[in-house]
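User: I've been trying to design a sequence by hand for this structure and keep getting stuck. Would you show me what you'd pick, starting by listing the structure so we're on the same page?

Assistant: Good idea, let's start from the same input. This is the structure you sent:
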């Protein structure tokens, strides 16, 4: 498993953030095989209700919360609040991965790991196919215009 805990380990993971104007994304800088764990989605785990409240205050800026279910609980990874307590300086790559419903090459995988005897929710990204160097990483956010910040928004990228 690739553990993303520091800038150093992101280099080991061999993925990198690119920037085009204001828009960022993530590319592979080494090949991955189908089934490989590529990186994680780093951030503080909060309730989904807290995540939704946070999104209501957002307007046109990029959104970084990741909503998931952990057993019966609706939860959210808050990658919006930056920098986070445990990563005071470096950005994290997971939150820079863009959406594709038509051609995703990653799939998020929810795991619960023990850290200091306590359960911790973690989101890892598994490669859906072989991924070559310089390929942009994308996953299906699983949202549509209705579920992503309400109806009637002109968000063409959700159809990609
Ligand atoms: C988790 S962030 C992804 C990284 C983001 N592009 C950035 O510059 O930091 C999610 C935001 O990225 C943008 N986004 C996601 N997928 C996109 C795509 N396929 N094309 C254009 N923008 C996208 C949207 O603004 C969305 O709110």
């Amino acid at each position: 498993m690739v553990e993303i805990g520091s800038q150093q380990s992101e280099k080991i993971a061999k993925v990198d953030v690119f920037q085009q104007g204001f828009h960022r994304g993530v590319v592979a800088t080494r090949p991955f095989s189908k089934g490989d764990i590529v990186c994680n989605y780093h951030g503080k785990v909060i309730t989904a209700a807290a995540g939704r409240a946070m999104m209501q205050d957002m307007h046109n800026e990029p959104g970084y919360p990741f909503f998931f279910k952990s057993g019966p609980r609706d939860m959210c990874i808050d990658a919006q609040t930056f920098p986070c307590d445990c990563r005071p300086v470096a950005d994290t790559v997971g939150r820079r991965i863009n959406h594709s419903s038509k051609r995703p090459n990653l799939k998020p995988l929810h795991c619960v790991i023990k850290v200091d005897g306590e359960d911790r929710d973690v989101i890892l990204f598994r490669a859906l196919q072989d991924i070559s160097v310089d390929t942009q990483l994308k996953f299906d956010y699983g949202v549509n215009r209705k579920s992503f910040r309400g109806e009637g928004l002109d968000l063409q990228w959700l159809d990609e």
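That's my pick for every position. To get oriented when you compare it with your attempt: The longest strand covers residues 106-115. The chain has a mean pLDDT of 85.
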